[in-house]
Design goal:
TerB-like, 9 helices
Length: 150
């Protein structure tokens, strides 16, 4: 499958396209948070694959993600990289979106709070991002009802 061009990623995300290694660092954190409730659900995997495609991940990169043992790492270690620190608010947002793909469990919410604290994202910003993700989901449903129902 073709991936999104680096130019498109830069236009969509407003930032340079990440390297495969940076994508993997970022995805490790997302997996850790989404798996905080005990599993990565099929809906969470579907979201991660879709998200990966929007940032230019190839099939090979996405296959490597499937091999990640998200339970073997601590968030404290996963959040040390310079790349993760420069994407801190975006990471919290994407973590909420990933974890919300199948319902936002209390354990996932707690993991989001922990990563936000580690990265210096204020609780008020986390709450705003959670509300924003809920609004996006509502708007998506509304759009579907308005445009694609009889």
């Amino acid at each position: 499958m073709n991936t999104v061009s680096k130019y498109a990623v830069e236009q969509i995300r407003g930032t340079r396209a990440p390297t495969p290694e940076q994508m993997e660092e970022y995805t490790q954190v997302l997996l850790h948070i989404a798996g905080a409730d005990g599993e990565i659900s099929p809906r969470e995997w579907e979201f991660l694959v879709h998200h990966g495609r929007t940032i230019g991940a190839s099939d090979a990169v996405i296959e490597r993600w499937r091999a990640i043992d998200y339970k073997s790492h601590k968030l404290e270690d996963l959040t040390k990289s310079a790349f993760i620190k420069t994407r801190r608010k975006g990471l919290v947002y994407d973590a909420i979106r990933t974890a919300s793909a199948d319902g936002y469990a209390a354990a996932e919410k707690a993991a989001v709070g922990k990563v936000a604290t580690l990265l210096g994202v204020e609780p008020m910003v986390v709450a705003a991002l959670e509300a924003f993700v809920e609004m996006e989901a509502s708007l998506t449903k509304m759009r579907g009802s308005l445009l694609f129902s009889d």
